[in-house]
Design goal:
Layout: E1 4-5, H1 15-24, H2 43-60, E2 66-71, H3 74-86, E3 92-95, H4 100-109, E4 114-117, E5 143-147, E6 149-150, E7 155-156, E8 168-171, E9 188-192, E10 203-208, H5 225-231, H6 240-255, H7 259-279, E11 283-284, E12 296-301, H8 307-316, E13 319-320, E14 331-334, H9 341-358
Parallel strand pairs: 1-13, 3-4, 3-5, 5-8, 8-9
Antiparallel strand pairs: 2-10, 6-7, 9-10, 11-12, 12-14
Bound molecules: pyridoxal-5'-phosphate.
């Protein structure tokens, strides 16, 4: 039976990447050992790191105005690194809030700077992006932060936020590499790797070079972007295996035809699933159509008492990890880059049959 893993993260890897990891495990690049057992200062590892950065720059069209950094500590470390590097207790930062992760980000940032949110922060499950008047934002704020795709709620920005000229910073943890965008619109972008860039342990960070090394605060060396930019992320022993897996994923993205081709596939996958859910009598998605996520599709059963049996039967049919986050409830299909269209078709066939027998 083919298993499809709809986990929100750590998430499914492309099969070709797993096959390559298996092939490399005992003898990586003719070295006679695995990449996990080698010095990060070895020439082989440095060559790998060079290819990784070059490929990331090529696929995302990143100019030399930006430093590319690989930082441990997950996206959550960026929630504090960003304010302590770029703002100060006297400074301020604006946060657009439309879901769980944005709320976590502002909570952490408010320990280090004066935060302002674009709309009142609610305990409700967000189903759209609240409107705000950008003209009221202080143009001297140190940065404007938003979460391009809220992974739990399945709410995604399909246009750039208005910032009143404030430098734009973005948590793209769940949608970097899933669609095309213009890096030059941003001052800073970050994404932890375990959804579309490989496995947990490493966070991909892009920052305009002129923003780096400007901290007004005394900060630990390991949380200073300058440390990573100056050493090309080789200051301490980096998470070498996640770094190597990221390169395999980037090669895979290129082999698929690049980010544009991946985006087209993701649009087909998500619209196929939303179309089915929208016409069904048993399932529904509550997110406003103009901000539905192309990579995390939450859906609810009309009768919540059926949730457990739905999860048991779907799992038995090889459709794994469909349970929604406990803060949101219901189901969620995370259909990141590694999930093929056949995964969506198999899921819909299962949902149809379940609706026929339980609807
Ligand atoms: C959008 C977003 N931001 C941040 C995080 C937190 O990432 P990490 O666990 O790597 O710190 C997640 C995790 O799912 C996420 O989806």
């Amino acid at each position: 039976m083919t298993v499809y893993n709809f986990s929100a993260g750590p998430a499914a890897l492309p099969i070709e990447v797993k096959q390559q990891i298996e092939a490399d495990l005992y003898d990586w690049n003719g070295t006679g050992c695995s990449v996990m057992e080698m010095s990060h200062r070895s020439q082989e590892f440095k060559d790998m790191a060079d290819e990784n950065e070059a490929l990331a720059r090529e696929l995302l069209n990143i100019s030399d105005d930006y430093a590319v950094m690989l930082i441990p500590g997950g996206a959550r470390l960026q929630y504090s690194m960003l304010p302590i590097n770029v703002s100060s207790p006297q400074g301020s930062a604006v946060y657009a809030i439309n879901g769980h992760w944005g709320k976590q980000a502002i909570k952490e940032a408010s320990r280090f700077t004066q935060t302002v949110s674009t709309a009142p922060i609610s305990d409700e499950v967000y189903a759209d992006i609240p409107d705000y008047d950008a003209a009221t934002l202080n143009p001297n704020a140190d940065y404007f932060h938003f979460t391009s795709n809220e992974t739990l709620e399945g709410v995604q920005w399909h246009k750039l936020p208005e910032t009143n000229g404030i430098p734009l910073c973005c948590d793209m943890t769940s949608d970097l590499l899933t669609r095309e965008f213009d890096v030059d619109d941003y001052s800073m972008i970050y994404a932890s790797a375990q959804k579309n860039m490989g496995i947990a342990g490493i966070t991909f960070v892009l920052m305009k070079r002129n923003m780096i090394g400007q901290s007004k605060n005394l900060i630990p060396t390991m949380t200073d972007y300058k440390t990573y930019a100056d050493t090309r992320s080789f200051y301490n022993t980096p998470p070498t295996f996640p770094w190597y897996v990221m390169l395999l994923v980037l090669r895979w993205v290129k082999a698929q035809g690049g980010v544009g081709a991946i985006q087209a596939a993701n649009q087909t996958k998500s619209s196929t699933l939303y179309d089915y859910v929208d016409q069904s009598g048993l399932y529904m998605n509550k997110v406003a159509k103009n901000c539905r996520s192309e990579v995390n599709v939450p859906f609810w059963l009309a009768d919540e008492n059926l949730n457990q049996v739905f999860l048991e039967q779907s799992s038995a049919a090889g459709l794994k990890a469909l349970k929604g986050h406990m803060a949101v409830g219901g189901m969620r299909a995370s259909i990141y880059n590694a999930i093929p269209l056949s995964g969506i078709e198999t899921l819909i066939t299962f949902m149809q049959e379940f609706e026929r027998t339980h609807g």
